[in-house]
Amino acid sequence: MRPRLLLVCLLLPTLALADPLPSWRAGALKTSIIGFVDAVTTPGADFVPAEARIAVFDNDGTLWVEQPVYTQLVFAADRVRALAPSHPQWSTQPPFDAVLADDLDALAEAGHHAILELVAATHTGLSSAEFAALVSAWIAEAHHPRFDRRYTDLVYQPMLELLAYLRAEGFKTFIVSGGGIDFMRPWTEAVYGIPPEQVIGSQIELVYEIGDDGQPRLMRQPEIGFVDDKAGKPVGIARHIGRRPILAVGNSDGDYQMLDWTTSGDGPRLSLLIHHDDPEREYAYDRDSAIGRLDQALDDAEGKGWRLVSMREDWLRVFPAAPSTPR
Amino acid sequence: MRPRLLLVCLLLPTLALADPLPSWRAGALKTSIIGFVDAVTTPGADFVPAEARIAVFDNDGTLWVEQPVYTQLVFAADRVRALAPSHPQWSTQPPFDAVLADDLDALAEAGHHAILELVAATHTGLSSAEFAALVSAWIAEAHHPRFDRRYTDLVYQPMLELLAYLRAEGFKTFIVSGGGIDFMRPWTEAVYGIPPEQVIGSQIELVYEIGDDGQPRLMRQPEIGFVDDKAGKPVGIARHIGRRPILAVGNSDGDYQMLDWTTSGDGPRLSLLIHHDDPEREYAYDRDSAIGRLDQALDDAEGKGWRLVSMREDWLRVFPAAPSTPR
Question: Which residues form the signal peptide (chains A, B) (predicted)?
């Protein structure tokens, strides 16, 4: 190799990594993230081959905003309102009654399972393709009540940088969310760079059948097949990935088992817990919040070796400066 | 870029693709496979972006030998025999009685579901990690009764070339098998270059729990969670991949729906059906075989546009020349 080319080849990685995480404030946390990545990618005692560099991320509250209610709940509520005229019984039937009464607190309390119930009930008789089209149309238009931006513009800039940095270092990045897998897949590739086959989430049952047009289709059933939350997260990881992650990021007690499963493996491990303590730029909530409750995991984080990320202290910027999603 | 370097860069792809499928006999089939790959990777009307180049492969009878019985059945039978002394009731209880009487015909007739039942019953009370260790130890030692080679050396050389060729052309290759997902994952990466997260198969239920040693683990339950066969294959594809493949390869009626789902999508599609018609080098079976029955798919192949692969005519070599798996 010619000397000048050699020099370029040697310098390129250094240049690229000069600051892979510009929205993370310099300090012990940022140093430990980069130190972990350096350790597992550099030949030596802590080296991890690329194929085992599995990184898993919760979605709601970890990659994008989950307050005042989960985005998927807003989507499902819009659908309930649209279908309500032909379902008069919903006005007294939970969780539909809460939607129709705009009782967000009751809905938030009901959690991911209520969302799945709403989605299952209001999206029966649709094929997978039809559902994906509904999601895509909705997510392109709906706006967050406080920030007046589309939800896909309310993703966390520091997390976008972390995802890109890890992939540049040979990691494979996965979403492991309590939310519906089919609600996320239509847009995760464009927004996070995470393709559908690396999205794990809660599922309703699907049935393969031949439609009236003679074409095969996958029909969504009014039945929950899998809840990818709490102890379901390591199960979802086992089903989809088949190996234990070495890096996990979450923000609530729903991520406890995923973080525990990740850090209890052999060799170097990193688990991060995002603490929403930034009421001005985003929200502040933990132990008393129905959405994204962070209680037990906050108590145990230090003993388990999980690193807390303070949104207020550790993130120089919360959201991307300009809307990232083209209309 | 310097002229000589530019020349090397331009020539490299051509050189590498001179004959990407050396074990496939020159002819219409080979031409159509390469023509399909060229079409979807070349800018133009049939171009498919890399992220949508999803290729799915059945395993038993498509990537490796499935006669005289599925390899996983041999594994499960070995386990039944080992545990039989402490389960006297098995001597009269199907499908255990067939195993203990060495009645391979009855077992073959019972199919994938019986395998899952045997595996579920004989591998209860094990963690995922313990099960993977059992599989790894078994597959490293067990030999095929006719060929006296390890099962992982009885993979099809032409299919190894097709997998490598597709990956070199930007495809992502997945296994979609009726066999057990956890029986395949310990060895598919070394043997096929397909990582665990791209292996889809039948599943037994898993439960996440904290063991007596205080460490989390995933325990295998005596309950079948998902059967990835026939109409289950497109469902498995939807759950794991979330988009429709553009290329599918199978060899039996169990692959019918996977092939149909693949070819009924828009744009260029390729489905191949491997016909076992080579009794000298491998086996000859189709309509009357309990293992890998090929009947309806054989009738409908021409009308559906699925290409038949004649093992005898189209493959210059069936197995790798030398054992591919290091001891």
Answer: 1-18
Look up the ipTM and state it: 0.91
If one counts every other C-beta atom within 10 angstroms of the C-beta of residue B30, the result is 17
CB pair distance less than 8 Å for B206 and A261: no
What residues of B are in contact with residue A215 (Cβ under 8 Å)? Answer: 264
CB-count burial class (<10 Å; 0-12, 13-18, 19+) for A161? middle
Q: Is A243 on the interface with B (CB under 8 A)?
A: yes
Q: How many structural domains comprise chain B?
A: 1
pLDDT tens profile A236-275:
999 999 999 999 999 999 999 999 999 999 999 999 999 9
Q: Choose the closest CB to B264 out of A195, A216, A257.
A: A216
**Does the CB of B208 have a partner CB in chain A at under 8 Å?**
yes
DSSP state of B277: E
Assess if residue B2 is contained within a domain: no
- Amino acid at residue number B106: A
Of A195, A231, A243, the CB nearest to B51: A195
| A197–B239 CB contact, under 8 Å | no
For residue B217, tell me if it sits in a domain: yes
List, for residues A46-92, the tens digit of each pLDDT value: 999 999 999 999 999 999 999 998 999 899 999 899 889 989 999 99
A17, pLDDT greater than 80 = no
Range of the domain at A162: 19-68+150-314
Confidence at residue A327, expressed as pLDDT on a 0 to 100 scale: 43
CATH of the domain at B210: 3.40.50.1000
Assigned domain for B99 exists:
no
Which residue out of A8, A197, A256 would a mutagenesis test of the B interface target, given it has the greatest number of B Cβ atoms within 10 Å? A197
Count the Cβ atoms, other than its own, within 10 Å of residue A271: 25
Q: Is B104 domain-assigned?
A: no
For B171-198, letters b (16+ CB in 10 Å) and e give bbbbbbbbbbbbbbbbbbbebbebbbbb
Task: State the count of interchain CB pairs (< 8 A) between A and B.
Answer: 82
For an interface test with A, give the residue of B9, B183, B208 to mutate (most A CBs within 10 A). B208
Mutation target vs A (from B176, B188, B239, B304; most A CBs, 10 A cutoff): B239
Q: Per DSSP, what are the bridge partners of residue B199? A: B175
Q: How confident is the model at residue A107 (pLDDT cuts 50, 70, 90)?
A: confident
